[in-house]
Amino acid sequence: MKGTLRLESETGKGSCFWFTLPLEAKRLRQSRKKQPTYEWSGQKILIIEPNDHCQEALAPILRNYQMDYHFVDKGRRGLTELSKEHHDSKPYHYVIVNAALPDQSGLEFCQMFNALQFSPKPEVILMSNFGNRLSKAHLKKHGVSMVVNKPVTQRSLTRGFRRICQVDKTGMDTQFLSISDTSSLVIPSLQTAEMPNQKVLIVEDNPVNQSVAEHMLKRLGYQPATADSGEKALEMMQRNHYPIILMDCQMPDLDGYETTKKIREMESCEQSGSQHRCRIIAMTANSMDDDRQKCLDAGMDDYVSKPVLLPTLSTALKNATSNSIPMEKDDCDQKNSTEHKPEQSGFDNINTDILRQFLSPEGSTKKGVLPKLVQMFCEKEIPKRLNEMNTAMDTGSKDKLIRSAHSFKGSANNMGAQKLAKLCSELESSADQITEDQTLKLINLIKNESKATKQSLKQFQASVM
User: 398: domain range?
Assistant: First the structure.
Protein backbone atom coordinates (compact mmCIF):
# COMPACT_ATOMS: atom_id res chain seq x y z
CA MET A 1 0.00 0.00 0.00
CA LYS A 2 3.13 2.15 -0.24
CA GLY A 3 2.92 3.30 3.38
CA THR A 4 5.43 3.38 6.22
CA LEU A 5 5.28 2.01 9.77
CA ARG A 6 7.52 3.54 12.46
CA LEU A 7 8.37 2.82 16.11
CA GLU A 8 9.96 4.84 18.90
CA SER A 9 10.70 3.13 22.22
CA GLU A 10 12.38 4.27 25.43
CA THR A 11 13.01 2.08 28.46
CA GLY A 12 10.84 2.99 31.40
CA LYS A 13 8.63 5.35 29.35
CA GLY A 14 6.99 3.14 26.72
CA SER A 15 6.66 2.81 22.98
CA CYS A 16 5.00 4.88 20.24
CA PHE A 17 3.83 3.34 16.96
CA TRP A 18 2.58 5.34 13.95
CA PHE A 19 2.09 4.88 10.26
CA THR A 20 1.57 6.91 7.13
CA LEU A 21 -0.67 5.78 4.27
CA PRO A 22 -1.24 7.63 0.96
CA LEU A 23 -4.99 7.69 0.18
CA GLU A 24 -6.83 9.24 -2.74
CA ALA A 25 -9.34 11.91 -1.77
CA LYS A 26 -12.85 11.13 -2.90
CA ARG A 27 -15.47 13.79 -3.54
CA LEU A 28 -18.50 13.23 -1.37
CA ARG A 29 -21.66 12.59 -3.27
CA GLN A 30 -24.09 15.38 -2.62
CA SER A 31 -27.29 14.11 -1.13
CA ARG A 32 -30.26 14.70 -3.31
CA LYS A 33 -32.72 17.24 -2.12
CA LYS A 34 -35.76 15.48 -0.80
CA GLN A 35 -38.63 15.85 -3.21
CA PRO A 36 -41.93 17.11 -1.83
CA THR A 37 -44.11 14.25 -0.70
CA TYR A 38 -47.40 16.07 -1.07
CA GLU A 39 -49.00 18.12 -3.78
CA TRP A 40 -49.25 21.05 -1.39
CA SER A 41 -45.64 20.79 -0.15
CA GLY A 42 -43.79 24.10 -0.32
CA GLN A 43 -46.96 26.19 -0.32
CA LYS A 44 -47.73 28.93 2.19
CA ILE A 45 -50.33 28.47 4.89
CA LEU A 46 -51.55 30.82 7.61
CA ILE A 47 -53.03 29.33 10.79
CA ILE A 48 -55.22 31.54 12.96
CA GLU A 49 -55.31 29.70 16.29
CA PRO A 50 -55.17 31.32 19.75
CA ASN A 51 -54.36 28.17 21.71
CA ASP A 52 -50.63 27.45 22.16
CA HIS A 53 -51.18 23.71 22.57
CA CYS A 54 -53.17 23.51 19.34
CA GLN A 55 -50.39 25.38 17.56
CA GLU A 56 -47.86 22.90 18.94
CA ALA A 57 -50.00 20.01 17.70
CA LEU A 58 -50.36 21.44 14.18
CA ALA A 59 -46.71 22.48 13.71
CA PRO A 60 -45.21 18.96 13.26
CA ILE A 61 -47.96 18.06 10.78
CA LEU A 62 -47.20 21.13 8.68
CA ARG A 63 -43.46 20.46 8.92
CA ASN A 64 -44.09 16.94 7.66
CA TYR A 65 -45.94 18.48 4.71
CA GLN A 66 -42.89 20.72 4.10
CA MET A 67 -45.18 23.74 4.06
CA ASP A 68 -44.21 27.35 4.75
CA TYR A 69 -46.45 28.03 7.76
CA HIS A 70 -47.10 30.99 10.03
CA PHE A 71 -49.26 31.29 13.17
CA VAL A 72 -51.25 34.26 14.45
CA ASP A 73 -53.58 34.26 17.44
CA LYS A 74 -56.32 36.70 16.38
CA GLY A 75 -58.52 37.22 13.35
CA ARG A 76 -57.53 40.85 12.76
CA ARG A 77 -53.84 39.96 12.93
CA GLY A 78 -54.58 37.28 10.35
CA LEU A 79 -56.17 39.85 8.03
CA THR A 80 -53.14 42.12 8.43
CA GLU A 81 -50.73 39.29 7.64
CA LEU A 82 -52.73 38.16 4.60
CA SER A 83 -52.92 41.71 3.23
CA LYS A 84 -49.21 42.35 3.76
CA GLU A 85 -48.09 39.17 2.00
CA HIS A 86 -50.59 39.66 -0.83
CA HIS A 87 -49.36 43.18 -1.53
CA ASP A 88 -45.75 41.95 -1.41
CA SER A 89 -46.63 39.36 -4.09
CA LYS A 90 -46.06 36.53 -1.61
CA PRO A 91 -49.66 35.38 -1.14
CA TYR A 92 -50.79 32.53 1.06
CA HIS A 93 -52.27 29.45 -0.59
CA TYR A 94 -54.24 28.23 2.44
CA VAL A 95 -55.75 29.67 5.59
CA ILE A 96 -56.76 27.53 8.57
CA VAL A 97 -58.92 29.43 11.03
CA ASN A 98 -60.38 28.40 14.38
CA ALA A 99 -64.13 28.84 14.60
CA ALA A 100 -63.68 30.61 17.96
CA LEU A 101 -61.18 33.49 18.16
CA PRO A 102 -60.54 36.03 20.95
CA ASP A 103 -61.61 39.04 18.86
CA GLN A 104 -64.24 37.53 16.54
CA SER A 105 -65.70 34.26 15.31
CA GLY A 106 -64.11 32.28 12.52
CA LEU A 107 -67.03 33.04 10.20
CA GLU A 108 -66.79 36.75 10.97
CA PHE A 109 -63.15 36.55 9.96
CA CYS A 110 -64.15 34.81 6.71
CA GLN A 111 -66.69 37.55 5.98
CA MET A 112 -64.09 40.30 6.45
CA PHE A 113 -61.54 38.30 4.45
CA ASN A 114 -63.95 37.87 1.51
CA ALA A 115 -64.47 41.63 1.43
CA LEU A 116 -60.77 42.06 0.56
CA GLN A 117 -61.39 40.23 -2.76
CA PHE A 118 -57.90 38.80 -3.13
CA SER A 119 -57.03 37.15 -6.43
CA PRO A 120 -56.02 34.38 -6.33
CA LYS A 121 -57.94 33.70 -3.13
CA PRO A 122 -56.47 31.26 -0.59
CA GLU A 123 -58.51 28.17 0.29
CA VAL A 124 -60.09 28.59 3.73
CA ILE A 125 -60.31 25.67 6.16
CA LEU A 126 -62.45 26.14 9.25
CA MET A 127 -61.53 24.25 12.42
CA SER A 128 -64.70 23.56 14.37
CA ASN A 129 -65.20 22.20 17.86
CA PHE A 130 -67.38 19.20 18.55
CA GLY A 131 -71.11 19.50 17.92
CA ASN A 132 -71.17 22.58 15.70
CA ARG A 133 -73.96 22.68 13.10
CA LEU A 134 -73.05 24.68 10.04
CA SER A 135 -75.39 24.97 7.06
CA LYS A 136 -74.20 24.56 3.51
CA ALA A 137 -75.50 27.96 2.44
CA HIS A 138 -73.90 29.72 5.40
CA LEU A 139 -70.49 28.15 4.77
CA LYS A 140 -70.60 28.74 1.03
CA LYS A 141 -71.55 32.37 1.59
CA HIS A 142 -68.47 32.85 3.75
CA GLY A 143 -66.12 31.14 1.29
CA VAL A 144 -65.23 28.14 3.46
CA SER A 145 -63.68 25.32 1.40
CA MET A 146 -63.70 22.67 4.11
CA VAL A 147 -64.52 22.07 7.77
CA VAL A 148 -62.42 19.81 10.00
CA ASN A 149 -63.23 18.99 13.58
CA LYS A 150 -60.76 19.35 16.42
CA PRO A 151 -58.54 17.73 17.47
CA VAL A 152 -57.13 17.92 13.95
CA THR A 153 -55.05 14.90 12.91
CA GLN A 154 -52.59 14.54 10.05
CA ARG A 155 -54.84 11.92 8.56
CA SER A 156 -57.95 14.11 8.42
CA LEU A 157 -55.98 17.12 7.18
CA THR A 158 -54.23 15.06 4.49
CA ARG A 159 -57.55 13.81 3.17
CA GLY A 160 -58.89 17.35 3.20
CA PHE A 161 -55.95 18.80 1.26
CA ARG A 162 -56.23 16.01 -1.29
CA ARG A 163 -59.90 16.75 -1.82
CA ILE A 164 -59.26 20.47 -2.18
CA CYS A 165 -56.55 19.76 -4.76
CA GLN A 166 -58.93 17.42 -6.59
CA VAL A 167 -61.58 20.15 -6.69
CA ASP A 168 -59.02 22.61 -8.07
CA LYS A 169 -58.14 20.20 -10.87
CA THR A 170 -61.61 18.98 -11.83
CA GLY A 171 -63.76 21.91 -10.78
CA MET A 172 -66.10 19.44 -9.10
CA ASP A 173 -66.70 19.05 -5.40
CA THR A 174 -66.28 15.65 -3.78
CA GLN A 175 -67.72 14.03 -0.69
CA PHE A 176 -65.10 14.93 1.89
CA LEU A 177 -67.05 17.41 3.98
CA SER A 178 -67.94 19.06 0.67
CA ILE A 179 -70.24 22.04 0.95
CA SER A 180 -72.01 21.57 -2.38
CA ASP A 181 -72.71 17.88 -1.79
CA THR A 182 -74.27 18.22 1.66
CA SER A 183 -77.37 20.03 2.76
CA SER A 184 -75.63 20.84 6.01
CA LEU A 185 -72.44 19.91 7.75
CA VAL A 186 -74.11 18.38 10.77
CA ILE A 187 -72.06 16.18 13.03
CA PRO A 188 -73.76 12.81 12.49
CA SER A 189 -75.45 11.07 15.35
CA LEU A 190 -73.80 7.98 16.75
CA GLN A 191 -74.54 4.77 14.90
CA THR A 192 -75.53 1.94 17.20
CA ALA A 193 -74.59 -1.63 16.36
CA GLU A 194 -76.44 -2.97 13.32
CA MET A 195 -76.32 -6.37 15.04
CA PRO A 196 -77.09 -5.75 18.74
CA ASN A 197 -74.68 -7.39 21.21
CA GLN A 198 -72.22 -8.25 18.45
CA LYS A 199 -68.95 -9.36 20.03
CA VAL A 200 -65.86 -7.17 19.75
CA LEU A 201 -62.48 -8.21 21.13
CA ILE A 202 -60.33 -5.42 22.63
CA VAL A 203 -56.61 -6.25 22.56
CA GLU A 204 -55.01 -3.61 24.77
CA ASP A 205 -52.48 -3.87 27.61
CA ASN A 206 -53.26 -0.51 29.24
CA PRO A 207 -56.15 -0.72 31.76
CA VAL A 208 -57.26 2.89 31.18
CA ASN A 209 -57.44 2.40 27.43
CA GLN A 210 -59.26 -0.90 27.99
CA SER A 211 -61.91 0.84 30.09
CA VAL A 212 -62.32 3.65 27.56
CA ALA A 213 -62.85 1.16 24.72
CA GLU A 214 -65.25 -0.97 26.79
CA HIS A 215 -67.36 2.07 27.67
CA MET A 216 -67.59 3.20 24.07
CA LEU A 217 -68.47 -0.24 22.74
CA LYS A 218 -71.22 -0.75 25.32
CA ARG A 219 -72.61 2.68 24.58
CA LEU A 220 -72.70 1.81 20.87
CA GLY A 221 -74.51 -1.46 21.54
CA TYR A 222 -71.64 -3.95 21.18
CA GLN A 223 -70.53 -6.71 23.56
CA PRO A 224 -66.85 -6.17 24.45
CA ALA A 225 -64.34 -8.77 25.57
CA THR A 226 -60.76 -7.88 26.54
CA ALA A 227 -57.32 -9.41 26.12
CA ASP A 228 -54.37 -7.68 27.75
CA SER A 229 -51.74 -9.16 25.41
CA GLY A 230 -51.30 -10.53 21.92
CA GLU A 231 -50.82 -14.05 23.28
CA LYS A 232 -54.07 -13.83 25.26
CA ALA A 233 -55.89 -12.63 22.14
CA LEU A 234 -54.68 -15.63 20.14
CA GLU A 235 -55.90 -17.99 22.88
CA MET A 236 -59.32 -16.33 22.92
CA MET A 237 -59.53 -16.46 19.11
CA GLN A 238 -59.01 -20.22 19.23
CA ARG A 239 -61.97 -20.64 21.61
CA ASN A 240 -64.36 -18.06 20.12
CA HIS A 241 -64.96 -16.22 16.89
CA TYR A 242 -64.86 -12.43 17.18
CA PRO A 243 -66.16 -10.67 14.04
CA ILE A 244 -64.35 -7.43 15.00
CA ILE A 245 -61.11 -6.81 16.88
CA LEU A 246 -59.82 -3.50 18.24
CA MET A 247 -56.05 -3.97 18.22
CA ASP A 248 -53.52 -1.85 20.10
CA CYS A 249 -50.39 -1.58 17.97
CA GLN A 250 -47.71 -1.22 20.66
CA MET A 251 -47.69 -4.00 23.24
CA PRO A 252 -44.79 -5.77 24.97
CA ASP A 253 -43.72 -9.21 23.75
CA LEU A 254 -46.18 -9.72 20.87
CA ASP A 255 -47.27 -6.37 19.43
CA GLY A 256 -50.44 -5.64 17.48
CA TYR A 257 -48.79 -6.01 14.08
CA GLU A 258 -47.41 -9.49 14.81
CA THR A 259 -50.65 -10.56 16.50
CA THR A 260 -52.59 -9.54 13.40
CA LYS A 261 -50.26 -11.51 11.15
CA LYS A 262 -50.74 -14.63 13.31
CA ILE A 263 -54.52 -14.20 13.25
CA ARG A 264 -54.45 -14.00 9.45
CA GLU A 265 -52.30 -17.14 9.37
CA MET A 266 -54.82 -18.94 11.59
CA GLU A 267 -57.65 -17.89 9.28
CA SER A 268 -55.84 -19.08 6.17
CA CYS A 269 -55.12 -22.46 7.77
CA GLU A 270 -58.78 -22.94 8.70
CA GLN A 271 -59.79 -22.47 5.04
CA SER A 272 -63.28 -21.68 6.19
CA GLY A 273 -64.03 -18.96 3.68
CA SER A 274 -63.92 -15.19 3.76
CA GLN A 275 -67.20 -14.99 5.65
CA HIS A 276 -65.29 -15.89 8.84
CA ARG A 277 -62.50 -13.37 8.30
CA CYS A 278 -62.54 -10.99 11.24
CA ARG A 279 -62.19 -7.27 10.78
CA ILE A 280 -59.22 -5.79 12.65
CA ILE A 281 -59.23 -2.10 13.55
CA ALA A 282 -55.91 -0.76 14.82
CA MET A 283 -55.75 1.67 17.73
CA THR A 284 -52.60 3.74 17.47
CA ALA A 285 -51.18 6.67 19.42
CA ASN A 286 -49.61 7.93 16.19
CA SER A 287 -51.32 9.44 13.16
CA MET A 288 -48.68 9.59 10.43
CA ASP A 289 -49.21 8.12 6.97
CA ASP A 290 -46.42 5.57 7.61
CA ASP A 291 -48.49 4.06 10.44
CA ARG A 292 -51.43 3.61 8.09
CA GLN A 293 -49.27 1.67 5.64
CA LYS A 294 -47.78 -0.43 8.43
CA CYS A 295 -51.30 -1.38 9.54
CA LEU A 296 -52.22 -2.38 5.98
CA ASP A 297 -49.05 -4.43 5.55
CA ALA A 298 -49.80 -6.35 8.76
CA GLY A 299 -53.28 -7.28 7.51
CA MET A 300 -55.40 -4.76 9.42
CA ASP A 301 -58.53 -3.33 7.83
CA ASP A 302 -58.74 0.12 9.41
CA TYR A 303 -57.30 2.23 12.22
CA VAL A 304 -58.36 4.92 14.66
CA SER A 305 -55.96 7.28 16.38
CA LYS A 306 -55.85 7.98 20.09
CA PRO A 307 -57.63 9.80 21.57
CA VAL A 308 -60.39 7.51 20.30
CA LEU A 309 -63.56 9.50 19.63
CA LEU A 310 -67.03 7.98 19.89
CA PRO A 311 -68.27 8.89 16.39
CA THR A 312 -64.94 7.90 14.83
CA LEU A 313 -65.16 4.48 16.44
CA SER A 314 -68.83 4.24 15.48
CA THR A 315 -67.98 4.86 11.82
CA ALA A 316 -65.10 2.38 11.85
CA LEU A 317 -67.31 -0.32 13.39
CA LYS A 318 -70.07 0.36 10.89
CA ASN A 319 -67.57 0.01 8.04
CA ALA A 320 -66.32 -3.23 9.56
CA THR A 321 -69.79 -4.78 9.76
CA SER A 322 -70.55 -3.73 6.18
CA ASN A 323 -67.30 -5.31 4.93
CA SER A 324 -66.11 -2.06 3.35
CA ILE A 325 -62.45 -1.08 3.04
CA PRO A 326 -62.34 2.18 5.00
CA MET A 327 -58.57 2.53 4.70
CA GLU A 328 -59.20 3.69 1.14
CA LYS A 329 -62.33 5.71 1.85
CA ASP A 330 -63.09 8.97 3.60
CA ASP A 331 -65.53 7.46 6.08
CA CYS A 332 -63.05 6.78 8.84
CA ASP A 333 -61.37 10.17 9.10
CA GLN A 334 -61.65 11.74 12.48
CA LYS A 335 -64.15 14.23 11.19
CA ASN A 336 -66.75 13.11 13.71
CA SER A 337 -66.99 14.23 17.27
CA THR A 338 -68.74 13.68 20.53
CA GLU A 339 -72.43 14.23 21.05
CA HIS A 340 -71.83 16.90 23.66
CA LYS A 341 -71.85 20.52 22.68
CA PRO A 342 -68.55 22.10 23.70
CA GLU A 343 -68.36 24.80 26.29
CA GLN A 344 -65.62 27.31 26.94
CA SER A 345 -63.14 25.60 29.24
CA GLY A 346 -60.96 27.23 31.86
CA PHE A 347 -58.44 24.36 31.63
CA ASP A 348 -55.32 24.81 29.52
CA ASN A 349 -53.92 21.30 29.96
CA ILE A 350 -56.93 19.04 29.32
CA ASN A 351 -59.39 18.75 26.44
CA THR A 352 -62.80 18.74 28.11
CA ASP A 353 -64.55 17.78 24.85
CA ILE A 354 -62.84 14.39 25.01
CA LEU A 355 -63.84 13.96 28.65
CA ARG A 356 -67.49 14.71 27.83
CA GLN A 357 -67.59 11.43 25.92
CA PHE A 358 -67.60 9.73 29.31
CA LEU A 359 -70.70 11.51 30.56
CA SER A 360 -74.03 9.73 30.36
CA PRO A 361 -76.23 10.71 27.37
CA GLU A 362 -78.31 12.85 29.71
CA GLY A 363 -75.23 14.87 30.67
CA SER A 364 -74.98 13.50 34.23
CA THR A 365 -71.98 11.59 35.57
CA LYS A 366 -74.05 9.55 38.01
CA LYS A 367 -74.32 6.69 35.54
CA GLY A 368 -71.41 7.73 33.39
CA VAL A 369 -67.93 6.26 33.44
CA LEU A 370 -66.07 9.55 33.99
CA PRO A 371 -65.57 9.17 37.79
CA LYS A 372 -64.22 5.64 37.33
CA LEU A 373 -61.80 6.70 34.60
CA VAL A 374 -60.57 9.76 36.49
CA GLN A 375 -59.94 7.64 39.59
CA MET A 376 -58.19 4.91 37.60
CA PHE A 377 -55.98 7.37 35.73
CA CYS A 378 -55.08 9.51 38.76
CA GLU A 379 -54.63 6.80 41.40
CA LYS A 380 -53.26 3.90 39.34
CA GLU A 381 -52.06 4.89 35.88
CA ILE A 382 -50.05 7.99 36.78
CA PRO A 383 -48.21 6.40 39.78
CA LYS A 384 -47.55 3.24 37.76
CA ARG A 385 -45.99 5.04 34.78
CA LEU A 386 -43.92 7.40 36.91
CA ASN A 387 -42.62 4.44 38.91
CA GLU A 388 -41.74 2.63 35.66
CA MET A 389 -39.78 5.65 34.49
CA ASN A 390 -37.87 5.90 37.77
CA THR A 391 -37.05 2.17 37.65
CA ALA A 392 -35.95 2.42 34.01
CA MET A 393 -33.58 5.27 34.90
CA ASP A 394 -32.17 3.35 37.90
CA THR A 395 -31.50 0.26 35.77
CA GLY A 396 -30.39 2.17 32.68
CA SER A 397 -33.04 0.53 30.49
CA LYS A 398 -33.97 2.98 27.75
CA ASP A 399 -36.20 0.40 26.04
CA LYS A 400 -38.40 0.18 29.15
CA LEU A 401 -38.39 3.96 29.47
CA ILE A 402 -39.55 4.36 25.86
CA ARG A 403 -42.30 1.70 26.29
CA SER A 404 -43.53 3.38 29.46
CA ALA A 405 -43.59 6.80 27.80
CA HIS A 406 -45.53 5.38 24.84
CA SER A 407 -48.12 3.72 27.05
CA PHE A 408 -48.48 6.85 29.19
CA LYS A 409 -48.92 8.94 26.02
CA GLY A 410 -51.81 6.75 24.85
CA SER A 411 -53.72 6.78 28.13
CA ALA A 412 -53.13 10.52 28.61
CA ASN A 413 -54.50 11.20 25.13
CA ASN A 414 -57.60 9.11 25.83
CA MET A 415 -58.16 11.10 29.04
CA GLY A 416 -57.87 14.41 27.20
CA ALA A 417 -54.56 15.24 28.94
CA GLN A 418 -52.93 16.46 25.77
CA LYS A 419 -50.18 18.53 27.39
CA LEU A 420 -49.07 15.49 29.41
CA ALA A 421 -49.32 13.30 26.30
CA LYS A 422 -47.10 15.73 24.40
CA LEU A 423 -44.37 15.52 27.04
CA CYS A 424 -44.57 11.72 27.02
CA SER A 425 -44.32 11.75 23.22
CA GLU A 426 -41.22 13.92 23.46
CA LEU A 427 -39.63 11.49 25.92
CA GLU A 428 -40.56 8.50 23.77
CA SER A 429 -38.98 9.97 20.63
CA SER A 430 -35.83 11.39 22.25
CA ALA A 431 -34.95 9.06 25.14
CA ASP A 432 -32.27 7.21 23.16
CA GLN A 433 -30.72 10.42 21.81
CA ILE A 434 -30.43 12.82 24.76
CA THR A 435 -28.17 12.81 27.82
CA GLU A 436 -29.13 11.39 31.20
CA ASP A 437 -29.48 14.90 32.67
CA GLN A 438 -31.78 15.95 29.83
CA THR A 439 -33.84 12.79 30.32
CA LEU A 440 -34.21 13.48 34.05
CA LYS A 441 -35.32 17.05 33.34
CA LEU A 442 -37.96 15.78 30.93
CA ILE A 443 -39.19 13.18 33.44
CA ASN A 444 -39.46 15.94 36.08
CA LEU A 445 -41.59 17.96 33.66
CA ILE A 446 -43.81 14.89 33.22
CA LYS A 447 -44.10 14.51 37.00
CA ASN A 448 -45.08 18.15 37.44
CA GLU A 449 -47.59 18.01 34.60
CA SER A 450 -49.03 14.80 36.05
CA LYS A 451 -49.84 16.67 39.26
CA ALA A 452 -51.44 19.51 37.32
CA THR A 453 -53.42 17.06 35.21
CA LYS A 454 -54.78 15.26 38.27
CA GLN A 455 -55.94 18.57 39.68
CA SER A 456 -57.60 19.63 36.42
CA LEU A 457 -59.35 16.28 35.94
CA LYS A 458 -60.81 16.35 39.43
CA GLN A 459 -61.87 19.97 39.06
CA PHE A 460 -63.59 19.21 35.76
CA GLN A 461 -65.32 16.18 37.27
CA ALA A 462 -66.61 18.30 40.15
CA SER A 463 -67.86 20.96 37.74
CA VAL A 464 -70.10 18.56 35.78
CA MET A 465 -71.41 16.38 38.59
Answer: 370-464
